[in-house]
Amino acid sequence: MQHASDIDLVLVDFDDTLVDTAPRFQRARRELFELLVSLGFEEDLVRRTHHDEIDPVMRTRFGLGPHRLEHAFRETYVHLVNSAAQTLDEDIAARCASLGRTVAGTPPLLEGALDALSRLAHALPTVLYTQAGDTEYQLSCIREAGVLDVVHHDRVRITDRKTREQFAATLREFAIEDPSRVWMIGNSMRSDINPALESGANAIFVDVDDPWEFDVVEPVHNDFITVRTFSEAVDFLLSRR
Q1: Could you say which architecture CATH assigns to the domain 4-21+107-238?
Q2: pTM of the predicted structure, to 2 decimals
């Protein structure tokens, strides 16, 4: 296992690694599903329609940010109504869209996350690596969370999708020639851990209690570290000095 002196770069995720994004998303989805079930639609059908049919289309159209949910929530209702040959109620459609808008805004910092980020950034080359459908919105959340007081703006990378190709491109931006000297810290197996592992980098998975279903995929292999908090991930890396 590497010592800290062998680490050229640490990439850190933002949502649900440094800030607590998931609860408001999960709450909004639960309220949407409860509303639609109260209208007579089966819960399993509601969940499948949203997760498997509507949200994937909206992710493609609007990206992974919160702004897609206004459209995804409304279209979930519209699709269910049309499939059941019912009459669309515009008031209910507007209510669904309104639930989707409740997820916007800067999420609260997770306990100890900013202090841990400061310790990490003072000890090792650190980059904030995040994804969003709206770059300016995501940057405003990063700024309001206080992250730019710790990690300079020129060490923030926001991409529309975290893929293996985007991960490799980010390493090239920072003149990293050997991915094995890089660590990725994040809560998404799909977007954080797997792209890093596929690129030959190291990864620390922050295992959260209530992950987004889209993030839950199998790892490409099991050679990664699992922790419960970002602070634990930083402790692990700094203990290698």
Answers
A1: 3-Layer(aba) Sandwich (3.40)
A2: 0.84
